[in-house]
Amino acid sequence: MSRIHIPRIDASQITPEHIWVSRREWLRQAGLGALALGAGGLLPSAALGADSPVGSAPGNPYAGRPNPRYTVNDKPTPEKDVSSYNNFYEFGTGKRDPYDHAGKMQTQPWSVSVEGEVAKPRRFDIDDLLRLAPLEERVYRMRCVEAWSMVIPWEGYSLSTLLKQAEPTSRAKYVEFVTAVQPGNMPGLDERIIDWPYIEGLRIDEAMHPLTLLVFGVYGKRLPNPNGAPVRVSIPWKYGFKSGKSLVKIRLTEKMPLTSWVKIAPGEYGFYANVNPDVPHPRWSQATERRIGDGLFAPRVKTLMFNGYADQVASLYSGMDLRRYY
Ligand code: MTE
Fold first, then answer.
1. Is the pLDDT reported for residue 256 higher than 80?
2. Structural domain tally of the chain?
3. CA distance 1 to 95
4. What is the dihedral of CA 157, 177, 89, 37, to 10 degrees?
């Protein structure tokens, strides 16, 4: 994660916000949802994944109801950047690699097992997961540890909804996320940077927090493969690496899971990884960030404590030394 790549973004490719907002509003009112956005051809289907419908029909299961309580007002990152400038090391370490290679990932059939310290362990088929609760659209800030950021309209519901189904026991102190490994479909697996599968984790109270989102879509469409199809998490107050993509297993545990980046470089990447402008990475500052899509010459944005979500989450860490538990 230490390499910073400067994206080449053509200013003419960026849709001004008022056009984006009014077009989206018009589409919603017309009841066409993401169908027409998809027809706009923002991403070729090969990049989205061979088995993914591009866009969606009326009655689109991926167009969540906007939830203003969990929506920031920042300008959303253009859709093409959200799905073509990614970290997904299973497909390579370059930001463009997931866009170029993730189309081969097989996302059907797919299931996610919820197991470990739960009274009712269960394997959920992806369609059952999708139907478990109505999807909400939440516009979240995403701050990568590499000091770039995006603003993303996700479609999903709180992870707590799923975890409650499995009835966590009193010994469940942590949640481990295990993600997919598909030899043959993931060229990045050959680079043994990570001891695959990519593992992430949260403390149980973080996992049950209403902001922690189980994500099935983005921009009113099915999650594109580069963003972690068919299901991932998004934890907006933490550095992006905490948000595991293409989940296959969620394991509740008594002990803190050994997560991938902590295993690789514990002095650089902590288990908590809360966005914190006052605690620099050992090799670079975390005080500011570059908003992808704003253009190369746009001023950097000040990074906010807990990525701007302090009101909602600071109480989870009261009494903790955040320099020690980075
Ligand atoms: N999940 C898996 N399985 N593999 C990865 O390499 N990268 C993480 C996270 N989830 C990663 C992953 C990192 S470093 C970031 S910043 C975010 O995904 C990026 O999510 P995005 O590309 O959808 O913005």
1. yes
2. 1
3. 10
4. -10
Q: Is residue 60 part of a domain?
A: yes
Is the CB of 246 within 6 Å of ligand 1?
yes
> What CATH number is associated with residue 140?
3.90.420.10
What are the pLDDT digits (tens) for 42-63? 444 555 563 444 444 568 999 9
Dihedral sign (CA 199, 275, 157, 130): negative
Q: What is the pTM of this model?
A: 0.86
Closest CA to 16 of 85, 82, 76, 80: 76
Residue with CA at minimum distance from ligand 1 atom 2: 245
Looking at the DSSP assignment, which residues form a beta bridge with residue 238? 274
Q: Is 144 in the pocket of ligand 1 (CB under 6 A)?
A: yes
Distance 226 CA to ligand 1 centre (A): 9
322 found inside a domain: no
Structural domain including 260 reads 11-317
